[in-house]
Amino acid sequence: RRKAKSRRMNATSGIKKAGEANIAVSVRVRPLNRQEEVDGRKAVVKAEPLKNILVQRIQGAVNPSNREVQERFSFNSTFGPETSQEDLYNSVARPLVIETLHGYNSTIFCYGQTGTGKTFTMEGVDFNNWVHSSGEGILPESAGLIPRAVDDIFKHINESGVESTVRISHLEIYNEKLQDLLAPLDNAPEPKIFNGKGKDHMLISGLEEFVVKDTAEVLRFLKVSLEKRTTAQTGANERSSRSHCIFSLTVHMKETLADGDDVLKVGKLYLVDLAGSESATVSSHTQETRNINTSLLTLGKVIKELNEHHRHVSYRESKLTRLLQESLGGKAKTAMVATVAPTDAAVDQTLNTLRYAQQAMNVKNKPEANERRSRKNIVREYLSEIERLQRELAA
Ligand code: ADP
Ligand code: MG
């Protein structure tokens, strides 16, 4: 009897309340790279049908018989090594990009160990090389989510004919310091996060925002900002594996209705290439703290607190979680792409990533559009209301 009851409770606890939307989590498994093939590595992580990820491993110590152990995880969607950039964009990002054009704020995170394809997924391959040769409106297959999202937004704006202004900014968080990747000056002062209207609405002062009119123009900006990211310091690889890169695109839209009123909508899209997940792992042997990334650790903590329905959530403990508060349990729509390597060598990090991603799936947002109607006709409405009341009185 008790069993039946608990099963019933489980069945209902998964039901969403109206207006809620969980973070949509997908997993992308990258192909074996050349070196892994040369080394004879096996692909032990597989994207299966039914949105599952299967991890197979030999677990000698726990499992003296050396039997193969399998673990299976379910997600909102999973993508194997053969997945094209276009397919990934269409399944994961496109729905959120469209929501941006309806006035929603949307965020897509890439989370995973260094070398698993976060930047491949966000930017694409050899981004710097094809930016100049790509010309107007033609993206190569290797283009990632950022160029595809930008291109899609301009395509929709041009088709709809809605009066729109698009602005972009590009920001890096490294060692809890913000750096404006589009700042014209090298020694620009650090941008600051401050509270806007509404409880989880954050603004940044001192961050350059550029109005852009087409994809080619955005690509030229990105070439500058991504070069800045990779050449800013010696040890560029180390830096890019420990820093968070946040591309943001804001669309202001004005639509005039048949009655003459204007509907003003603002949608914001954040595309976030997170630091390597290993930089939030504390080595238990040495208690080494040098690698700890406050923003990444706090992101995990915030996700855990939201899962456990804490009354206080630690958004304020890091720059990343402060900035993206709205995307974590707030009014934005959010998706996460967890990237993993296929090999047996990486299996521990892969399992960490998959468990983390499962936690993120339980985070519920309450999406709300930024839409305002300008009541041009308000005087006319009042006059007709007065007229109606006078008629009522006279009757
Ligand atoms: P991260 O940003 O997570 O550190 P990268 O995006 O730099 O990882 O990817 C590491 C390497 O693997 C790069 O050479 C990249 O081109 C390649 N790679 C990653 N994902 C894929 C994929 N899905 N298909 C083909 N190559 C990939
Ligand atoms: Mg990277």
From TrEMBL:
Record-stated family: Belongs to the TRAFAC class myosin-kinesin ATPase superfamily. Kinesin family. KIN-5/BimC subfamily.
Part of the intact protein present: 7 to 401 of 1020
Residues bound to ATP: 112-119
Name listed for the protein in its UniProt record: Kinesin motor domain
Residues in Kinesin motor domain copies: 22-363
Coiled coil ranges: 372-395
Localization: Cytoplasm, Cytoskeleton
Organism name: Carpediemonas membranifera
